[in-house]
Request: fold
Amino acid sequence: MKNIVKILAGLALVISLVSCSADFLETSPTSSYDQSFIFTTTDNAFAAVNGIHKSMVRQYYSRQNIGGYPSFQIAMDCLGEDLVFPTAGNGWWTNTGEVRWTSNRNANGWLSAFPFRISYLWVSNANMIIDNVDAAQGPELQKEMIKGQALAYRGMAYFWLVQLYGDRYDASSSNSSLAVPLVVNTVEVKKPLESVANIYAQICADLEQSISLLNNPSNSYINFSSKSHFKAATVMGLRARVALAMQDWANAKKYAEMAISTTDATLMSRTQYTQGFNNADNPEWMWGFEMIPDQTLYFYGYMAYMSWNFNSSNIRGCPKCINNVLYDKIPATDVRKGLFDPTGKAYTMPTSSYKKYPYMNKKFAVADYSSSVADANFMRLGEMYLIAAEACANLNDAATAQNYLYTLNTTRDTGYTKSTSTGATLLEEIYTYRRIELWGEGFRFLDLKRLNKDLNRNGTNQNAAVCYTMEVPAGDILWKLAIPQEEIDANDLIDPNINNQ
Amino acid sequence: MRKIKLFLCLVAVAVSSMAFAQNIAVKGSVADRSTGEPVAFASVQVKGTMIGTSTDANGQYTITAPSNGTLVFSFVGYKTAEVAINGRIVVNADLEFDTQQLEEVVFVAYGTVSKKDFTGSAVALESKKLENRPLTNVTNALEGISAGVQFTSASGQPGSSGGIRIRGFGSINASNSPLYVVDGVPYDAISNINSDDIENITILKDAASSALYGSRAANGVVLVTTKKGRSEKITFNVKVNQGVSVRGIQEYDRLDAYQYVPMEWEGLRNSYLSASGSTYTRETANAAASANIMTQLGNNPFNVADGQVVGTDGKLNSSAKLLYTDDLDWSKAIARTGYKQEYSVNAGGATDKADYYMSLSYLNEEGYSIKSYMERANARLNINVTPKKWLKAGINLSGTMANSNIANDDSSTGYVNPFFFSRTIGPIYPIYQHDESGNYLLDANGEKQYEWTNRGGSAHPGRHVIAETLWNDNLYKRNILNTRAYVDITFFKGLKLSVNGGYDFRNYLNSGYDNPRVGDGSPAGRSRITNYRYDTFNFNQLLTYTNSINNHNFDFLVGHESYKNDYKYVYGMKQGIVAEGNTELVNFTTINSLTSYTNQYRTEGYIARANYNYSHKYYLSASFRRDATSRFYKDARWGNFWSVGGSWRIDQEAFLAGTQWLSALKLRASYGSVGNDGTDSWYSWQSLYGILNNANESGFIQSTQAGNTELKWEKNMSFDVALEFGVFNNRITGQFEFFHRISDNLLFQVPLPSSSGVLSQWQNIGTMYNRGIEVQLSGDIIRKKDFNWNMTLNLSHLKNEITKLPQEEIISGTKKYMVGHSMYDFWLRDWAGVDSETGNSLYYKDILDEEGNVTSKETTDDYTKASYYYVGTSIPKVYGSLLNTLTYKGFDLSFLLTYQLGGLVYDSSYGSLMSYSGYGSALHVDILNRWQNPGDITTVPRVDVGRNAYQNTGSSRWLTNASYLAIKNISLAYNLPKRWVEKIDLAGIRIYASGENIHSFTARKGMDPQYSFAGTQSNVYSPARIYTFGLNVQF
Reply:
């Protein structure tokens, strides 16, 4: 009998514990979803578009100066001559090489890697949507809207890639030099480098298809209240930018004008101009990112480097200044002149630990100096007028160009009189106003590159001991970022010596 | 009772059969030779007969024996002693502690095995060796005890542990850490165990020993067994430790203020000249540098005006004197002498039906960096009962409560990192505010005020690590409960079922507060709470059968095991403090972050093992395990692991019976496979979209890691062969061991082209091996009655080589993985010295022909054009330890040295002190040797802030010899003589002193060659030197 007790006790123990239930080993995370779930419905697919929107402004790679698209913008001005770092600050953008032009060809550096990685992140997410949205359950019109968003992202991403990693587009040549891989679906994801011409062709096709999908007033899915979503006018604006880079003046004029007439944005007032460029409610913003407090980027944010008042080490030690030569070109009656302090003494800083330097800016501000939370501006109506003016001037339509410039500048400058210049003089005026209007918004390096101009920082308040590189001739290899080594290593379709040109 | 009767009958028979000898009654006591403590239950036997008895709880015995006979005294753990009676009626015996004997039992997977029957490779550390070495974290005691095991240093933060690698590096991207098993159940938080509770720690090195833990044993296993009650006499111990903690590794040598300012001037002057397109001449640059240097530096600590500190000749103004010399040393200001105190009590006892052990301890240890501390309380209760002969059950409960404030060294270059900040701030910045004549500026309350405004760009302007450390909090609260329970049912002799269960929970609450006055929290103030907890369950059911038939001894085991780990994370952060002094979230206005998630991990496995030996001479063992993990897709998650082992005790052979000098000789070998599923995520096989909301709209984003349904176990196949020997009555013992460990189906985080939008995917691609030799030699240099000196030398050599990769090469930080190279081979620009004409750093660069083939190399001063080369490895040629143990009467002295020969360290901390990317960061004294004028021959390039990236970029220049010799521990203990102690009715008193991390001899002051296996450096809480004094009273 004793044995029976033993055996029963033993069996009970074994049976109660020895077998795990069939799904014991099936686990899934609570902070992510399986890919298959995302494209079941159009609502979920639209959430995937929203993910790309959010990925525009986000902390990346635990690297404090990589906060998404705004970091592209900052880098573009660091590489120009109009944004002045009075000191090396705490090292971001200076020691890291952007201002100094010491990292452009470093294939193992972040300046090479981050625009590449992030652009392709947009491409890949867009490709997933483009390939899968048709099979999702939901209204056709919503699918059109979703696809229109994804195509705009893909075009936008390739536009960055080709401008940064490719040779300058030259309308008078074949543009056959190699730029970046062209990945346009989710099946063939490892691709060789494609020519500058073919990348631009893809960009134009994507943006034009996006415009045709989004420019549909009867599609109620496109009535976004948020400026982070693409509307037709925004994509037209992108298409105009692309045309400008291609010296395709006719299309630049066409799409800039389409954007101006399609958008519900209006040029902002002089008062609004001084409100810090931190709020998407500004009527001039066509495209931007709206940040809520619990999505703050802390020290990764645009305002952590470019604002005059956010309480970051970078800003306290190194306020961002304007090139004094450019400053001197701004008329005294222009609201834009008041965004800078040539004395370096005028501003009352939030605390005494902020350093002040001559020509420091007050253009960019956070609402509360304890928080870097701010909306991010990616496209404003003013730029459309400048594109239209530049295109018209190049098409030898001086009168129209003068009018566009006039419309824009009268909202900024109470004393502005319409230009009577033509030809090269008119173009120079437009270029100067473009520098003034878009200072700090991420255009200068690419403008110099597309216009094939030298970088020249001599004769300005640029400090040689800070920015190290004072001159770079147009066409130098430095105008093209190195293809990241990580891409070359992982992609055997790319010549390992591609950067050794 | 029946046994005693039978025994008495036997005694009667024996007595009657020895009619010729005169039997007398002999009595006496048996004591431990070193401590004088009575040895209870020792066996006392009349030599050559079956007459025997055992000592009582007080070590006393009586026996009837022939007056001319000999008594044999023996007890587990002691050397057997023979004493002739010689007609005496009182015969006392001292038993000598036998270290060989103590290792009799080896803790192995799911049980123990006698040392002589053990066929694997394991090294144990017993509680005895921990007694004189009060360590907050017991894993630190493992360093140096075994060949083939490599360590990194533990951080200075109280309670931290270093890294451990057993027999090389098993995986490139997956985990390389061993599996910790505490009382039979995997457990990840070994650092929370009170070292006083530990009976034994065993490192299982080869596959035969660890294969039964197949699932996660690829990197070896560390088995921890806690104490049980043992003797009928109740033991009661009280222990008190008091100690101090100071910096273990001294700071790098840096320039002082007088040397520093002219050097910064030179960096500025040279920048004006070297800028591309510069319009400066040497004269105008000199003048500009003299005029501007103090503006760049942001603070002038001298008694002369800004423009006059450094002349246009680059020399410091001869009348310049520092205004406040005593307020410039930040390294000193963040340091202190930490105080450590520990109190513990334990008690234990046993009867034949039950045993119990209980302990309680409290520890409070201050780190040597201001404000860092840990306070910990541990309690343990271990009870085992045997209500029926066939039924045994037990429970082992332990609880830990710990509070700490952690010095923030998460980021090597974080402003809140006190080690980074104090190391890199220039020597001209005061801690407190001063007026123009150098006096402290006091506030309204007469207190000194911190200064954080007047700084150069690279001197962390607006930040103040001392104020921030004191005003901020980084508090951790840990609550840990471990539960182990088991039931053993013996169906009949030899067949036993064991069911073991373990439930652990670990709860961590991190409260971070950043003050509103200075730092990351400024000006609003912010607070964050992170709460995470692990709930782990482990169950196993084991059936064992043991039997011996004639000389055939065998045992079998079959079993099943399941493991479940649930992780729950909650995080919230708010800013905008309402009233200072309250760091709870309710006292803040704006939510910056609020999130939570849960992760789950499961494994399940089936186990089988067979051991066989013939006559304790020839041994064979085999095991098999089939395991599944939730980290892999259902079709790929099961893996099979197995091992075979054998050993031959040559010393048992008849042909060696006459060799007196040979005490032991054993040859053993094993081969087996174990698995690794240690990927970075618990969901590595899945293709995921993360939640990424766009403001208040729901959003998803593709993971940058692609899923892989074919992902399966990484497999380690280890071969091991060893020769163990003992000669001259085991006076010299040793073992030579060779291992070859192949890691196949390497879990590899394969980089994908970043143009695919996905950065990596876990794949099973790649093969690597670790091959090595381990030597352990131990000898009693002196072996006398009262004096013993034992020396043990460990020596290991390791070769690590990758033999297969998913792509031709993968670059990872300062390393490149490539077939034919180790995973720790440095891949860097190769620095070619300084151009004596220009003072520029030179780097080697390949010259390519038209096909892109390398034809030769040249030098360049443009680092972006430099080629990369293999320039050495972090893996040492030889590493090991030397342990000396001396005992003299009641004294024990031991000292442990560890060493490494060869290998390189990439000393990035030194590199940053030799760089000058801006103005205001500290400089290493080596920079005094910089190039100054054409023709200078030196190894330090021109100081030029603008060209810093070109002069000082990452290259072979920062590689430094990693060889070291470290005095890890010295401890001295004294056991008060028994006769004194007994007078005050105590069982024993021991006093001891111990020092940890006493000194390291390295190639450069400041560098820690043991910081990482990869040979990197970081600005971290470097190891502490701790001196402890203790008292142990046994009742």
